[in-house]
Amino acid sequence: MPGLRPYDGPWRFTAQADDASVPRLRHEVRDLIRRQATPVSDDVLDSLLLILSELVTNAVRHAALLSPEIGVEVSLGGGLLRVAVEDDHPYRPKALEAEPFLEHTSGRGLLLVKALTDEAGGVCDVEQTGTGGKVIWAALPLTPP
């Protein structure tokens, strides 16, 4: 297709909701972004991969019983690199809505996601899917602020 940039996406992955998927998905996404010559700084890529690891770990730990498979989507557009993790569990975590300075006994991984996203000048959120599950996503600017 004429005019396509080498980094046009989105790219989708699926994986079993188990511990082995965390490093595998992180490496697949890192390799894809490099292979596609995505114009992203090292700092943003490192933050994105840490966010991905936290989101996949969260799905593995909290959603695997109801969602034995998870989905990951990486997309690029509007100067943002976005990663999203989808599972079929209906619970919508509140950590992304919480103030980062509050004490939490769980959800610290999502608070880390929020902090990394905020630091990079990006946005993150949780959305319900049409099938009753959820997608947790973060979008980071291609270049740090």
TrEMBL record:
<dbReference type="InterPro" id="IPR050267">
    <property type="entry name" value="Anti-sigma-factor_SerPK"/>
</dbReference>
<keyword id="KW-0723">Serine/threonine-protein kinase</keyword>
<keyword id="KW-0418">Kinase</keyword>
<keyword id="KW-0808">Transferase</keyword>
<keyword id="KW-0547">Nucleotide-binding</keyword>
<dbReference type="InterPro" id="IPR003594">
    <property type="entry name" value="HATPase_dom"/>
</dbReference>
<protein>
    <submittedName>
        <fullName>ATP-binding protein</fullName>
    </submittedName>
</protein>
<dbReference type="InterPro" id="IPR036890">
    <property type="entry name" value="HATPase_C_sf"/>
</dbReference>
<dbReference type="Pfam" id="PF13581">
    <property type="entry name" value="HATPase_c_2"/>
</dbReference>
<keyword id="KW-0067">ATP-binding</keyword>
<feature type="domain" description="Histidine kinase/HSP90-like ATPase">
    <location>
        <begin position="16"/>
        <end position="137"/>
    </location>
</feature>
<dbReference type="GO" id="GO:0005524">
    <property type="term" value="F:ATP binding"/>
</dbReference>
